[in-house]
Specification:
- The protein has 474 residues and is α/β, with parallel strands linked by helices.
- Helix content is 26%, strand content 37%.
- It contains 13 helices and 24 strands.
- The chain has helices at 6-11, 15-19, 37-46, 51-66, 104-113, 115-122, 141-145, 153-159, 161-167, 178-186, 419-426, 432-448, 453-468; strands spanning 27-32, 85-90, 125-130, 133-139, 149-152, 191-195, 205-210, 217-218, 221-226, 231-239, 247-257, 262-270, 275-285, 290-297, 302-305, 308-311, 317-327, 331-334, 337-340, 346-356, 360-369, 377-386, 392-401, 407-416.
Length: 474
């Protein structure tokens, strides 16, 4: 397959189609074995970390060993941590600043995804992580002139220790659940971004994470800090080639929006079908600040992701739009959580799921309004589209309201494709698969308006290709 259209390359196919089977990539270090203090210390030594970070890792390991597996976790029977490589360093001496500096076998993955053209057209900065380490990092001069700090996460630990210590693991705590603790014990890679007071970054920054082989763990950590009255749109992309066995992703994102600032965080996850995916995401918004999450999940064997916002300051607000498609015997367990701690806070949750070919979608949401969060408001919409008789969608909303002046509204709908809809579209010379994909795209069209145009194309084209593979509906 050859094309000069970068958008088509990036958006037209599932990762198995674009990237093919995983290809061997030369590595300089692999750390694996029974998870232990020695393993964690070896990772820390390899990264030349300060003592405070090693102590944090070891505390997380202790918690991982003590905490039970969450009762909402299912489908991890095959996951065996002793099989996994916890840390894989590609044979790249330091993050490249040009594509030509990347090894050809790594560069080939990003070329096939059309990332170089996307960077030139859309982005003000980009970070690539392959396996456990950042392999490419570049920021436009405009970011540096504005005083924006954009670094690989491990580099920020060394260069800005006081700033990192102020926020790292404070927004998404180590003890949140067992797999959060595992993440902190083994974390590697990710992006660090600090936006100074009053600075508006008009072009997005992106981090792209790629798992290259079976039986690997990827544990990147991204920390975004928006100082007062600043703005940033951060885009996270995730993918993997076709794997002979599973790999495990257990990443984390922490956002801190200081007074009057705004952070928009967009995720497009199009993992191949053998990835087990945990995505731990949480943000804190101070007075008059805003956090917006947009999450598009189209791949993986099983996904757990719940973008969450803590509305700490008065008049702060947050929205979370989550779109999940589960095609085949796969599970998407998603939702959003909003914590209202201050007066006049606002939140909105929209969750849309599509289930087909035996796919299962689960929504788990939480809206908590504390006493004293006067006149807080929250609205939740859950919409599920089920496309055959052996696919499922479940909705588990949970509201905790301790403030009598607060208002929460919730609506949920579950729909099926009607025979009359299919008949109408079939009369327009569409195949059943084409008609079904058109209905599915229409189902999420209203929420895609908040996404960059190029990434809307990703969702549309991937859905089209996925439905072209459906063997039969109904």
């Amino acid at each position: 397959m050859t094309t000069n259209n970068a958008e088509e390359l990036l958006s037209a196919y599932s990762p198995e189609d674009v990237l093919g089977y995983a290809k061997p990539v030369k590595t300089s270090l692999i750390i694996k074995g029974k998870l232990s203090r020695g393993i964690v210390e070896e990772i820390s030594r390899a990264k030349k970390e300060p003592g405070w970070m090693l102590r944090l890792r070891l505390r997380a390991l202790e918690l991982f060993e003590k905490l039970p597996t969450p009762n909402w976790v299912i489908g991890l029977e095959e996951l065996d941590l002793e099989e996994l490589a916890y840390y894989v360093r590609p044979d790249v001496k330091e993050p490249a600043v040009t594509y030509e500096d990347l090894p050809p076998e790594i560069r080939d993955y990003y070329d096939k995804l059309g990332i170089p053209e996307m960077e030139a057209k859309l982005l003000s900065g980009i970070t690539f992580q392959f396996e456990s380490e950042t392999v490419y990092h570049k920021a436009k001069e405009t970011l540096e002139k504005k005083g924006v700090i954009m670094l690989p996460m491990e580099e920020a630990v060394i260069k800005y220790p006081d700033l990192v210590k102020q926020y790292f693991s404070k927004i998404y705590p180590i003890a949140d659940h067992k797999f959060a603790a595992l993440h902190y014990a083994l974390w590697s890679g990710g992006a660090f971004v600090y936006i100074p007071k009053g600075v508006k970054v008009t072009e997005p920054i992106e981090a792209f994470f790629l798992i290259g082989q079976s039986l690997e763990g990827q544990f990147e950590h991204s920390l975004i800090i928006a100082d007062e009255n600043s703005y940033l749109h951060f885009i996270e992309g995730c993918s993997a080639p076709m794997l002979k066995r599973y790999s495990f992703h257990d990443g984390a994102v922490e956002l801190y929006a200081h007074g009057g600032s705004a952070i928009k965080f967009t995720t497009i996850q199009n993992w191949s079908k053998n990835v087990v995916n945990f995505n731990n995401k949480r943000g804190i918004a101070e007075e008059n600040a805003r956090i917006d999450w947009i999450e598009g999940g189209l791949g993986s064997r099983i996904t757990y992701t719940y973008p969450s916002s803590i509305l700490k300051g008065a008049n702060s607000s947050s929205s979370s739009i989550v779109i999940q498609m589960s095609k085949g015997p796969y599970v998407k367990d998603s939702g959003s959580k909003m914590y209202h701690l201050a007066p006049n806070t606002r939140s909105k949750i929209i969750n849309k799921s599509i289930s087909v070919d035996g796919g299962v979608n689960i929504y788990r949401g939480l809206v908590k309004i504390n006493k004293g969060a006067v006149k807080a408001r929250s609205h939740v919409e859950c919409q599920s589209l089920i496309l055959d008789d052996h696919s499922y969608a479940y909705t588990y909303p949970h509201n905790q309201v301790e403030e009598p002046s607060a208002i929460i509204t919730h609506e949920a709908t579950t729909g099926r494709i009607g025979e009359e809809q299919l008949f109408y579209l079939r009369q327009r010379s569409l195949t059943e698969q084409e008609a079904t994909s058109l209905i599915a795209i229409g189902f999420i069209e209203d929420v895609m308006k908040d996404m960059p145009f190029e990434y809307v194309n990703i969702l549309r084209k991937v859905i089209e290709i996925e439905f072209s593979k459906v063997g039969g509906l109904g």
